[in-house]
Structure formats: structure tokens, C-alpha cells
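Sat 14:20. Reprocessing the chain from the morning session after the first attempt stalled halfway. Input below, unchanged.
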Amino acid sequence: MKVLIIDGYVDEPAHFGVPPYLSTYPRYITGLAHMANYEIEYKTIDQIRDSEIPNSDILVVIGGVTVPGNYMGGTPMTVREAQEIAVRFDSKLKILVGSMAAYSIDRSGGVVARPNTFEKYDAKMWRGYEMKMYKLFTGKEWKKGRIALIKRAAILGAPIVKEHPNFPDLMCELELGMGCERKTHCSFCTEPLFGEFVSRPVEDIIEEVKSLYDSGARHFRLGRISNIFAYMGKVTPQPEALKDLYMGIREVAPDLKTLHTDNANPGYMYSHIKPVEKMVATIVEYNTPGDILSMGVESFDPQVIKANNLKISEKHFIEVIQMVNLIGAKRVEGVPKLLPGINLLYGLTAERRATYKINEGILMRILESGLMIRRVNVRKVMAFPGTPLFEALGGKMPRVDERLYRHHKYVLRNKFDHPMLKRVFPQGTILRDVIVEKHSGNLSYGRQMGTYPILIGIPKILPLRTHIDCVVVDHGQRSLTALPIPVDLNTEPLKLLRWVPGIGKSILSRIEFERPYKNMEDFIAHTRTELPEWMKEMVLFNRKRS
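Finished this time. C-alpha cells:
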């Protein structure tokens, strides 16, 4: 029997799978198919959009976006595409897996999820799909529980990373646990729908990392958990368990390139500030630079917080981010090791005009305080059946004042994001191993591997998938301009040299006419231009090409 896995990509609250990320879904499903001694073929939705679908006995399609976002590395499968795939494909068994198996919803916030009507699929699975799929593949019941099943499936399915078109530039999401540790939950969140909060054993995750590492994976994110500080500690944090996990990963993956994390509950962090301080220190000791703790604040408006059972007040949140800055803001070649990220959500109950001003005011106070925030994510809520928000709305669309929402984003991007980026990534910051992903006009755009990596514009056309080191020279609202280093002042085009700090438009024509220069002293003597000291260390003077 042959199984074709089509990865339509997922974006869930604690689980990401849009390239260069690879979710747990295709890896687990591959492992389950191996347990049934099936042959496996893996394709991404981007690979099959303009090509024929390979033949197989069983089709497994993965998809579902429950968190709206903008994507650069790939485009998640739409509801229409999922339907078309089922129609185009002729097989004995067609299976749809992921949130799309439950909801007919695409990449948009401010909407209500509706049950889907994918009649062309023989089976649809989301929560608890692993146990169901094992029985479907093998005809047997798995009696040892989900945790034991995914341990085996994850190890057997690890080699599928080699089949991904982005390999080896692939970030593997690792499941630390599932569910939420809170007794009562945020009104909008789907994570409680997965059941009681549970953590995977440290040893299981380390073995999975080893199998992925042995298969060539070098980038890892500790995700698929609503709050990393509750790992192995639903009631009381367990700093030693987290330290054992990080140390174990470093032991089995000694030459890893990225080790990042994702979600953190700032309310839990404040309530357990002392043990959490130890855990933040552990992360900073063993992670790689550029890491982010994504904190679901959602709103600073006390009225919205109370109505939606949110996590933390302004005062307590400031104390939490002060602690993270104190420990995590140390830099490696200019890049902070670990910073907070903030999620703001609109369309919640009790929202009002003042909500936008309250949120703006607090963010500006954070900026003025000198603290660092790596990024602010502003989005509209999705309402899912089974959540308190869905019930409060009576199944109707969330209410978002579009005019206020657009103006709010404009204000934040210009007055907060831009100056904050200049603080987090000052001129002269070195960005290692940037991967070129797309071209637009005379620019190349790239990102580092990481959790919420910053977009980097490079004023030069470079081959796609090229790995380069860059130095930051300018800042946008949510992106950076950087130059590949070293910069050859004798051979680089003027369009690139105009971005070198200290070189103005007035001397570009002189440079073109006079070069090649022998060295920095010769350059300064001829151009009467002084470069910043940090920039001098990043230039060279090769002979000009004929």
C-alpha cells in the first residue's frame, strides 16, 4: 500500500507549519504509515498546485489555519483547494487532517468558523487523529495512549524532512504538550478543545530531536504548547525539567543552528516569577540568538480583560517584560538572545473605541521606558464553535471597527514598531546565515531561520536559497535593510553602495569614476568621506572587475 501525504500547511495557536516550518502532522503521519508497513510519498501544496497529483492507494491531506497571518515561505491550502484535490484524486481512501477537517475556514481574521462539508473525503480527523489513523492504517487499537504512540511515530517519521523542498533549511516544530494549564480559559482560544493540559516526557522529545538531527535537521522550535513555563508544571513550574530538556537537546544535537521557543503565558509568569526567572535563564543559556517569547496579552483594556478572562494587567505585564529584558537582552553580535513578543487581538467582547487608545498608550510607555519588545502581532479574532466567544456572539461575526483598526495598525507601525526595531537591531548589527527567499524589483528579501524571523531587504539581486551574512544599515516599520558582508567598495554596484552609512549620493559618481581604491586610507583621501568605525570593519578593496 502507498500513502500520499499532501502538506497543505497549518497555522494553529501553538503549532506552525508554513515553510520554512514543518509541523508535526506530516512527521507523525509518516511514522504511523511506517508502523503499518506502507510506502510513503510526501508533497507540499505548493509542489502540486501546478502539477499532477501522484498516484497512491491512500491520500492524506493536511490543512487548516486557525490563526490569521501573512506568509512569505509558502501559501496555506484554501478550502477550495482541499475540495478540488479530493475531486481530482482517485484513490481507495481519502483522509483530511487538521483544523480544516472540522472547520471550513481560510486565512482571514474577524470571521466565524463553520463546520465543513467535505463530502469527497472518506475520513476527517483533527483532535486525537493519531489514534484514529493508527487504527485505520493497521486495523488495530493502540492501547498504550497517545503519548506513547506519537513517541514512536515521531521517531519513525523523522526522515521525511529530507523530502521537503526547503530541506535542510527547515524549522521542525516540536510538541512539548497540549491543552492549556489555566482552570478557566481565554474566551476565544481553541487550545482547551484538545482536552486537559499534558506535557510530553523530556526523554521522548530528546529522542525525537536525535532522530531529526540524524536525518539532517538543524533547526528546532519548542512549540505546540500554550505556555513553555508550564511544561511539566501545570500547577507549579518545574525549572529542572526545562533545564534537562534544553541540555538533552544540546547533547544529541551538538551542531544545531537554531533552538528557539514560542508561546508563554505572562499571567503564569507573573504568578510564579522566581522559578520562571530560573527558566528564562535556562532558555538564554542554551538557545540561539533572536529567540522570542510570544505572549498572548490580547488586550490591556481592563474591561476587555474581564469580559474575556484574559491573562494579565498592564502593571504585572511590565514587571514580566522587565524580567525578560534583564536576563534575555544580552546580545550576540548585536542580536538579543531572548525578547518578549506581544499579541494583540481585536473583535473580543466588551471592546470599545477606548480599547485602541489604551493599547496604544501602554505600548508607547513601554517604548519610552527603554525596554525592548521584539514584535507586536496585531490581528482580528476568529470565533470557533465550542469557545465562550462563539457563544457570546451567538454564532455571529466578531465586531471590528475597520476604520479604527486600520488607523491603530498605522499608528503602531509608525510610532512603535519603527523606533523599536532601531533599538532591537541598531545599525551595525550582524545577521548571520540569512536565506534569500524572494525578489522584488532590484531587491532580494531574506530571513534567518527562527521564531518570527525579521524580514530583511537586500539592495542586490542574489540567487534564491543563497545563505549570506549581512549588516543592518536601515530600518522600516517591520523590516530591515542590510548589506551582504564584506562589502567590496571597488566592485559593488552604486545602487548598493548608496546604502553604506557615510556614503552620500553626492559622492557616488566620484566613486564610480575613481575606483579601484587601494585601501581605506586611499578611499578617505579621495572621497573625503569617513565611514562609521563598525562599517570600516566590514568593507574590503578587491581589484575592480573589468
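The chain has a mean pLDDT of 93.
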